[in-house]
Design brief:
13% strand; alpha/beta; 12 helices; binds zinc ion
Length: 381
């Protein structure tokens, strides 16, 4: 396996105020752990520098006036700083902008494009894009929830427009619903958006009834989950809802909105996944990519606000992409909770809503009855 780690120090220059959860230290820590493990020199790992997404590429999912508005806002902070102004300015609720935020944001959107180019040329098998600002809340014409441009959405459109792919799947296991990604592809049948997220929670979207519209009806799958949900529910959701839906859609490329704020230690999220749990979920995705699309898989960083947990999850995902199967888990399992989600009811309901009931039975390969009879009876029968 050849895995690309795509990262640029420019991502540290998107500056947020002191104590803001989405801070440069997140990526510093993740790179620090990868270095401390000596994993940057591992066989099969290549480090790549992202190219910037062009305005035309961004404009496939964002309005040009919005793109220029972000560029101008960063430029304004740069000019104010020359006059002694602050390094970061309020831009929208929870979202800030600094002198080099635009440069960081176009490289964050460019990172998965660099990955897709290398995959399509056969230079790498898969990639981890360690980027910020994150992207999945960004709307066509607006910033939202720490996000400036929708990195994963730009990537999906690029794969479709530039390489002529007809089906791209986005799997989003960030604790928040990726409302921006859903919006962008809500009527687009070429992109299957699958999200697990805490509900009720920010941003308030992602009900299971939101399934897409028009030609895109059925290509949005939302799995809202109550706070404290852990791996014992995530795993069957992935195996019994996500996997058959992916199999039915038959993607040619899988993108992951890799947010680790569903980790039990996360200060924003309220879920109970451990690093080992994230490792197993990532393993299911890797298996699916190998089975459905020659392993073509690009993971793109979204949230994750406990620095230790986020760094451990990044290292673990890189390890699994490389074909290994150990988790880097310094924080251990989630604390026990007082109640359990009724997983069977949840799965049955999701499978009903998305017409997946009996899918495996209908689509499983037919057994070779003659061979089975011979084996049961033995060679002399
Ligand atoms: Zn998040």
């Amino acid at each position: 396996m050849t895995t690309a780690l795509i990262y640029d120090p420019i991502f540290l220059e998107h500056i947020t105020p002191h104590n803001h959860p989405e801070r440069p230290e997140r990526l510093k820590m993740a790179m620090g752990v990868l270095k401390a493990l000596n994993w940057l020199e591992r066989d099969g790992l290549v480090q790549m520098t992202p190219r910037a997404a062009t305005e035309d590429e961004l404009a496939m999912v964002h309005d040009r006036t919005y793109i220029q508005y972000v560029a101008a806002a960063a430029q304004k902070v740069a000019e104010e700083q020359l006059q002694g102004g602050r390094p970061t300015r309020y831009f929208a609720p929870n979202t800030y902008i600094s002198a080099r935020s635009y440069e960081a944001a176009i490289k964050a959107a460019g990172a998965p494009l660099t990955a897709i180019d290398a995959i399509m040329k056969g230079e790498i098998d898969n990639a981890y894009c360690l980027v910020r600002p994150p992207g999945h809340h960004a709307l066509p014409d607006d910033t939202m929830g720490f996000c400036l441009f929708n990195n994963v959405a730009v990537a999906a459109r690029y794969a479709i427009d530039h390489y002529g792919l007809e089906r791209v799947m986005i799997i989003d296991y960030d604790v928040h619903h990726g409302n921006g990604t859903q919006d962008i592809f809500y009527t687009d049948p070429r992109v299957l958006y699958f999200s697990t997220h805490q509900a009720p929670f920010y941003p308030g979207t992602g009900l299971s009834e939101e399934r897409g519209e028009g030609a895109g009806l059925g290509t949005t799958i939302n799995v809202p989950l109550p706070a404290t949900t852990g791996y014992e529910t995530y795993e069957p959701v992935f195996r019994q809802v996500m996997a058959p839906a992916a199999d039915r859609f038959n993607p040619q490329l899988i993108l992951v909105s890799a947010g680790f704020d569903a980790h039990w230690s996360d200060p924003l999220g309220g879920m109970n996944l451990s690093t080992a749990g994230f490792a197993q979920l990532t393993g299911i995705i890797i298996e699916l990519a190998q089975f459905l699309c020659d392993g073509r898989l690009v993971m793109v960083q979204e949230g994750g606000y406990n620095l230790d947990a986020m760094a451990a999850c990044v290292a673990t995902c890189v390890n699994w992409l490389l074909g290994d199967d150990a988790a880097v888990d310094s924080l251990g399992p989630a604390p026990r909770t007082a109640f359990r989600v009724n997983t069977d009811v949840l799965i049955a309901e999701l499978r009903r809503i998305h017409h997946l009931t009996g899918y495996r039975m209908r689509n499983a390969p037919k057994p070779d009855i003659e061979r089975l009879r011979r084996e049961v009876k033995g060679p002399d029968a």
